[in-house]
Amino acid sequence: MKTCAIVILNYNGEEMLKTFLPSVCMHSIYDVWVIDNASTDDSIDFLDVNFPQIKQIKLEENFGYAGGYNAGLATIRGQYEYYILLNSDVEVSPDWDYTMVTWMKAHQDYAALQPKILSWKERGVFDYAGAGGGFLDRYGYPYCRGRIWETIEKDSGKYDDIIDVDWASGACMVVNASLFHDLSGFDSDFFAHMEEIDLCWRMRRSGWKIGYYGPVAVYHLGGATLDRASPKKLYLNIRNSLSMIYKNESSSRFLKIFMVKSLLEHLAAISYMSQGRKEFAKAVLNAYKHFGDKKKAINKFHPTMEGRKEIPRRGKVGLIFWNWKVLGKKTFDQL
Questions:
Q1: Partners of 176 in beta bridges
Q2: N vs C: which end of the chain shows fewer Cβ within 10 Å?
Q3: Residues 133, 159: contact at Cβ < 8 Å?
Q4: Are 301 and 247 in contact (CB under 8 A)?
């Protein structure tokens, strides 16, 4: 069995591959794979001509982020100890893959690990996705060191440490390959967004730690496939968040969380309507409707512990939005 495969999911990302693949090939020692989600652009031809050394997995349709990775990784199951799941719009740094995989091999109780994720456009500030390590508040809302809601910090070096976190960013994460498959990978019903947080939650419930490795930095463009401020992303985030919390919390705890989230997010829908942003209000309402429609088909997650104890949530914040919006706590240090 080989040590690691770097796996990039692609959908109509020829321009991203042109920009970011050179750094991956230059700075990586492990096999590089591209899973193609039935692209209709010239991505495959570009790879064939310019990067013949990169291994390809060609899917017959676009399964989204979650389903695409599940289908692609199933074809190489059992060949590698670790996967590095890497967005197509990430520039990596020297020794990035070897350093993180070496750390994972020395810390066998960790299921996933992410590096420090900085902005590719503004290299001195953190990226929105993952930043300096991801956490969950008590209501399942994600936040990061270096990024609280829409406030993003400059990188001053204070997050160059190695710590335990609640979740690792799907923009760049090392994951134990056998555990990924044992837990059935990402939830393919998510299609995109929140799937890595859900997977990490299931890993922690199964007794595995999630790590952040600040000594390694990568640079993420972000928004290459779906703009952060889009109705579709808002819809997916709310719908998938509800599904994730429903799967991983007790029924009584979910009900309490649901009441708070529903109030906040329906108030947001009213606010969107008052601003004339009807498509965003509709996204919120549709997210709740579609979650309700499929709720009975969602299976509660029941971990097989095998002598392990559940890893508790590291985030200690009650409601991150209240802290950010009302209390004015804009940075992690202020929480």
A1: 82
A2: N
A3: yes
A4: yes
Burial of 19 (0-12, 13-18, 19+ CB in 10 A): middle
Handedness of CA 274, 277, 280, 282 (dihedral sign): positive
Residue carrying the six token digits 């760049």: 172
User: What type of residue sits at position 271?
Assistant: S
For the chain, the residue count is 335
Task: Specify the number of domains making up the chain.
Answer: 1
Q: Does residue 72 form part of some domain?
A: yes
| Residue 170 and residue 90 in contact, taking contact as beta carbons nearer than 8 Å | no
Q: In this structure, is residue 312 part of a structural domain?
A: no
Position 268 in a domain: no
pLDDT tens digits for the chain (335 residues)? 999 999 999 999 999 999 999 999 999 999 999 999 999 999 999 999 999 999 999 999 999 999 999 999 999 999 999 999 999 999 999 999 999 999 999 999 999 999 999 999 999 999 999 999 999 999 999 999 999 988 999 999 999 999 999 999 999 999 999 999 999 999 999 988 899 999 999 999 999 999 999 999 999 998 544 455 789 999 999 999 999 999 999 999 999 999 999 999 999 999 999 999 999 999 999 999 999 999 999 999 999 877 789 999 999 999 999 999 999 999 999 99
- Name the H helices within 220-301: 231-248, 251-274, 278-294
Distance CA 93, CA 257 (A): 40
In a domain, 155, yes or no: yes
Task: Give the residue among 21, 23, 72, 30 at the shortest CA–CA distance from 50.
Answer: 21
Q: What is the CATH number of the domain that holds 163?
A: 3.90.550.10
Judging by beta carbons within 10 Å of its beta carbon (0-12, 13-18, 19+), is residue 241 exposed, middle or buried?
buried
Expressed as residue numbers, the domain containing 159 is 2-220
Distance CA 78, CA 177 (A): 8
Amino acid at residue number 285: L
Query: What values do phi and psi take at 304, rounded to 5?
Result: -100, 105
